[in-house]
Records
---
Amino acid sequence: MAETGAGAANEPNALTESRTGAGRAEVPPSETEALQAVSRPTAGAVAAGIAVVIVLGALTRYFETHVPRWSVDTPFQRVAKSIEFPVYAIALGLIGNVVLTELALRDRLSAGFRTEFFIKTGVVLLGASINLKILVTAAGPSILQALLLITAVFGFTWWLGGRLGLDDKLRALLSSAVSICGVSAAIAAAGAVQARREQIAYAASLVIVFALPSIFLLPWLAGVLGLPDAVAGAWIGGNIDTTAAVAASGAIAGEKALQIATIVKTTQNALIGVVAIALTAYFTLRVERTPGAARPSARQFWERFPKFVLGFVAASIIGTLYLQSADKKSGAAHIAIVNDLRTWFLIFAFVSIGLEFSLRGLREAGWRPVVVFGSAAVVNLAVGLGLSVLLFHNFTV
């Protein structure tokens, strides 16, 4: 790959190549310690970075609430009502990225842009709203659709990524994101395969870029094709990669479509843990195991397993048991509080993604990841439509 700046010749591709340490000059221990001391962020810098995220997150919530009100009785009313918080958060994060870069503050404050922490916390809280009993008893077709769709799309994305020479870690992130539930699945996969931050930010950016037009495209196509509400909802829920975008698109398609879309997307969300376990096993036993080396121990497997996935499962179980014991009104109110807290953490995560976004990473990645994700999105649409028609054509809401 061509150089992108001074010293780039000795740096591996940030997104598509593994860091093996090959070709790097040895640095004496004393110099290494000095460099680490210089680069170690101060508590003030971390606090300032977190403060930037919180302020931009508050602005995101403000715009999400007020833009629809400002656009009433204007040509933008319908569009404004459909735009969800990820759009505002990413946009504000990108603006903050530019401003802080111009002020030479972005690198100093970057330790406070805790993307992984915010998303992992949001994913754990997401589990509380997933009632496993409802999924098992009332959404049999959605479970079958989720299993078949995830298997087909994940397999295709993994295969195409391999054919185009993508790094296995990036393949895992893109495959999980496009086949399950976008950024949340990418984060779970990142923990399992120990991906790098720039790979996470890149995968998340692709999710947002492809999810936004889908919000409007899928309801329109459902109308053109004359799909029943249940089929339209299943198609929307199975194909759009973020829960917020699914809600926005389902609302455009109609209340009945929204209900099915939510159930289908929730079912896919519930499979995050399964995929994370499978990826942990695959990378531990196959991808990163050197020939002739002993089989990894249970402790090594546990050390690389993304622990927050267990929090996601635990929250789901606790939420299910709580809703069974509490009265319907109180249970719904308390879950709504948890969901609002989850939204805040996801807002902070999307803001941080915008703040961490790097054009250099895009240039280095080139066209291959975009082609892989775009091709997988098309396959997802086609397979998802077929499964939705097959499994939901007689389904009543």
Note: Residues 1-14, 16-38 have pLDDT under 50 and may be disordered.
---
Amino acid sequence: MTEKKYVLAIDQGTTSSRAILFDHSGRIVAVDQKEHEQIFPRAGWVEHDPLEIWRNVRDVVAGVLSAAEVNRHQIASVGITNQRESAVVWDKTTGEPVYNVIVWQDTRTQRICERLAGDEGPDKYKERVGLGLATYFSGPKVTWILENVEGARERAEAGDLLMGTMDTWVLWNLTGGVNGGVHATDVTNASRTMLMNIDTLDWNPGICADMGIPVSMLPEIKPSSGIFGHGRKNGLLVDTPISGILGDQQAATFGQACFTRGQAKNTYGTGCFMLMNTGTEPVHSTNGLLTTVCYQIEGEPAVYALEGSIAVAGSLVQWLRDNLGIIKDSKDVEELARSVEDNGGAYFVPAFSGLFAPHWRPDARGALVGLTRYVNKGHIARAVEESTAFQTREVLEAMNADSGQALTELKVDGGMTRDELLMQFQADQVGVPVVRPEVTETTALGAAYAAGIAVGFWSGTQDVIDNWAEGKRWTPQMDEAERDRLFRNWNKAVTRTLDWVDDDVVE
């Protein structure tokens, strides 16, 4: 029998799908990646083509196996991680989506959220699901599809339609699709739908009824680390166990070995997401954070987290590149920001989809403030960089207040951590060391670990802890008065974004 040497992670992200092969030490062996189209039908609407995403997943799996010159016999298991709140609805007999993926950044469901909230307000379901009513979460997206796609509600009520987050879509297709595909999700993704009871980890029929979503559409909820199914007969991964699923931010927390209560990480990707492990009891936030499931290993209790979600981080750099043409490549933003000594008085609040944690203001829209004739593109680039650090400080202070304990260091990961100017400014703003691991692809790595633990490739979380290694550390250097002055001005800038969207603004 061929020795199992690797675990494969499929990372279905907001802008691309990747396949990464890891060895037993948690090192990257090979990577393949394909971007998919970002579809913007109207202001505030963000969509993806689910069939394009599935084609890309197949392509990158083939590409990574080819690049590493390995086959399925050398792969112990497959883990899936994904953009969490993006939702898709499809026909179980044809495999055809009834509509595009509605992406987590999309704001079209604001009226639905207001209707659901009624007189009880946006916290109507929060005690049950850990989340306030917001356009961010996937349940109302499915409601929108059922209410706006011709014939969708009738087909759903007849039992012909399935819904899921992107892990569910990928898993169903990997395991056979219309020929016996497994319709399941894990506790972390289910906890982002607004449809799962946070305490009992099962679907809430009352909330489903409120949203008009037949329970028959919903996937089975399973632990994050455990056997979900096996690759289908005619695929590259035939008979290979798919044994780990984690939403991307929980996967990064797992990959960062945050297994002790009070440990936290921040991921800098399309958005920015900080999670703090709160142990086996959910902690309900009073400071604008979300209560979510951190992970669950089969046979063990679920572990919970507090989360601060920031909608726009790396996507602001992409906006600078694609919409304004100020830079040619995303990595150029650091060099441009270094061309000036400071932000020149400019502050950029990227409330493109409203403000997420800790504000939760869907009426906010982006603003670039403090402009004078002195400000040039270097200052704007610096304001773009600094906006991510300011937003992270807001979340960290809320997390310290909710948890009753102050973080002593911040573990970081994601593509933006390669930006050393940003990482130093981040340490200056949060006032504690910022620590980047040697392997920064912690999202895919976390999914790989969950999958590998389920089949015995790794013996448990201690192996994850043993494999984790510090790559670089930044310590605070800024004078405290200057640190506070900058943050005070940032907070002033935030107030300028509020109350922008009202009944007179068509989106």
Note: The longest strand covers residues 28-35.
---
Amino acid sequence: MANVKNLKKDINFVLADIIEAVYLFEVSTSGNPTPETNAIIDEAIASFDSLITKVNQKHVENKKVHFKQINVELEQTANQLIAKINEL
């Protein structure tokens, strides 16, 4: 069970750090949210919901492969969101 707990923490921390980076960008530039920053935050929240739903699935054939796939998906999503922040 510790692995599931750590995976949930990783999802929470990674996506929260991305949202925090967007807020820091907003404060350091205009001080106000823009449609682009709001879209990145919305995408991060949607990704969080999707990943947590996948973690909480009960009937999975191979749990080890399932959780590895979620971890890979988290990494890909985080990299995409970071690239979008860097483009701002």
Note: Helices lie at 2-28, 35-55, 63-87.
---
Amino acid sequence: MAWIALVVAGLFEIGWAVGLKYTEGFTRPWPTTWTVVAMVASVVLLGWAIRTLPVGTAYAIWTGIGAVGTVILGIVLFGESASLLRLACVALIVAGIVGLKLVTD
């Protein structure tokens, strides 16, 4: 269950990171509300996951999921660069996430 909570926490992290763009500096009420809800959900689920998982592993995976998802949505939603070097760096993050999962009980 802790791994599922951690993955969902990472998905909420993606949501609030992308949501920040839509808040326009926290000047838009509904995007701001949803962004704050996603922030709280993300941290609460991370906190729940680290009751069982090693904190370093959980935090690294949480930020990795958030980073990879945010880069992908930045490319899809905001037309950010999808250069080969950028995608290779994202692949390295994914490899790190998978590696941490494989070596953690």
Note: Helices lie at 2-23, 29-49, 55-78, 84-103.
